[in-house]
Amino acid sequence: MLGEYRIEGRRASDIAASVERGVGLGALEPGQLLPPMRELAATLGVNPNTVAAAYRTLRERGVIETDGRRGSRVRPRPATTARGSIRVHAPAGVRDISNGNPDPALLPPLDEAFAAVARRYAERPGMYGEAPVDEEFARLARAAFDADGVPGGPVGAASGSCDAIERLLVAHLRPGDAVAVEDPGWGSLLDLVPALGLRPVPVAVDDDGVLPEEIERAIRRDGARAVIVTDRAQNPTGACVGEARARELRRVLAAHRDVLVVDDDHGHGIVAQPLHSLAGVTDRWMLVRSVAKAYGPDLRVAAFTGDAESVDRVLGRQRLGPGWVSRLLQGTVAHLWATGAVDPAAVASSYGERRDALVRELARRGVVAHGRSGMNVWVPVADETGAVARLLAAGWAVAPGARFRMETGPAVRLTVSGLAVEDVEALGEAAAGAAGVGVARSWG
Question: Cβ(218)–Cβ(201) under 8 Å?
Fold first, then answer.
């Protein structure tokens, strides 16, 4: 089972360290099955409870995952290896369309907003003991949620979507619990879930978002206790949950009211499609909106709402760490919202023009690509490494699909935010040439 590597130790900490050492050396490979606890206990001459404690520690550290009768195995990707490190360096003269950043020309200027908040701060500086959520920030966020039909609930502020989701998962789940995640999906989230000691269960997506039958399978067969769904501008595929798909997903989830549902609406402010969320279908839920794509990644602010218990748990845990998200930043975002600093329709149109043009250009050349919303286009390829290399040679640095996928086939992600419409033909020609003959027509 383990080849020549021997797990050693008499104490739980020593056994866990021995497994981690094997993983670090490459002697225990990703996906490798570990001995059953009783079998390893007999080999080491220790109590099975000692091995159970060691395995529990390894799960909590994100080194291994346990899947019931299927046993424990080394995680497919160790928690210390971030997917973001799987990237292509763009040398001089190569266009970098791999980073997923918004178009700086579409971001609002921040000087006036910061100045307005600074003037208010000069009159009344923020101090310890104040409410963690700026009153105007909460009011405007709640009004936007209401306008989109999101159920009523308190509002919180986090340092980005990933921060809010992490705190929510920690508040409700235990190490070893299964979480349904989109595949392909947001690379940071695919790293975060196992890093928390949780077990990611990949669920397939199409242009309309996650597939209802995949969610049903993840809950019934794999025991998923939480489901994370991107409503619009799904990263990396651009999928968008429409009304019909949302109705199917709500029907599935309504039969599992104890499952935690997380809506990631990071595309708010940059998409034309309406929101069809899953909020409120189950007893525990949260909808998170980052301002990164529409107002600037460095603002590090996300608004969230959810059932009262979930929001209270997240804010309570936040109080024990950073305390709160800077009310100066919350005030800045509130000012940007109140003054209409971003025209969502214009931003969505700008990204849509470039994205749709690229998808059409690829289709004209016989390559089916995906990108219903947002700023990314997902292109299935026959050979991912070869496609990345060929595009680099043609002057384009793209994101390898390995950053975003677990079980789905090879692909590359192209971010259109740095493109002009006149760039599309050249990129389409290069991408079509790199896709390869016999490429899969979907990401499944």
Answer: yes
Rounded Cα distance, 327 and 210, in Å = 35
Provide the residue type at 163 as one letter.
D
- DSSP secondary structure of 302-321: EEEEE-HHHHHHHHHHHHHT
| pLDDT per position as a tens digit, 85-106 | 666 777 888 999 999 999 999 9
For residue 222, the SS3 value is coil
Q: Does residue 229 contact residue 210 with C-beta atoms inside 8 Å?
A: yes
Please give the single-letter amino acid code of residue 217.
Answer: R
Q: Which two tokens stand for residue 87?
A: 């990237």
User: In angstroms, what CA-CA distances link 223 with 8, 200, 203?
Assistant: 32, 11, 13
CA distance to 200, 202, 257, per residue, from 218 (Å): 10, 8, 15
Q: Which of 370, 384, 368 is nearest to 441 (CA)?
A: 368
pTM of the model: 0.84
Specify the amino acid at residue 178. Answer: A
> What single-letter amino acid sits at 175?
P
Handedness of CA 33, 190, 172, 229 (dihedral sign): negative
Alpha-carbon gap, residue 113 to 234, rounded angstroms:
29
* C-alpha span between 372 and 283 (Å, rounded): 30
Asked if residues 207 and 341 have their Cβ atoms less than 8 Å apart, the reply is: no
Q: Measured between alpha carbons, how far is 353 from 233 in angstroms, rounded to an integer?
A: 14
Across the chain, mean pLDDT equals 92
Q: Strands 399-400 and 178-183, how do they pair?
A: unpaired
pLDDT tens sequence across 271-305: 999 999 999 999 999 999 999 999 999 999 999 99
Q: What are phi and psi of 372, to 5 degrees?
A: -75, -30
CB atoms within 10 A of CB 93: 6
E strand intervals along 75-174: 95-96, 155-158
The CA distances from residue 346 to 76, 342, 437, in Å, are 41, 8, 37
Q: What is the distance between the alpha carbons of residues 279 and 74, in angstroms, rounded to a whole number?
A: 34
Q: Where are the alpha helices (DSSP H) in 124-242?
A: 135-147, 161-172, 187-195, 212-220
**CA distance linking residue 372 with residue 224, whole number of Å:** 28
Strands 260-264 and 224-230 turn out to be: parallel
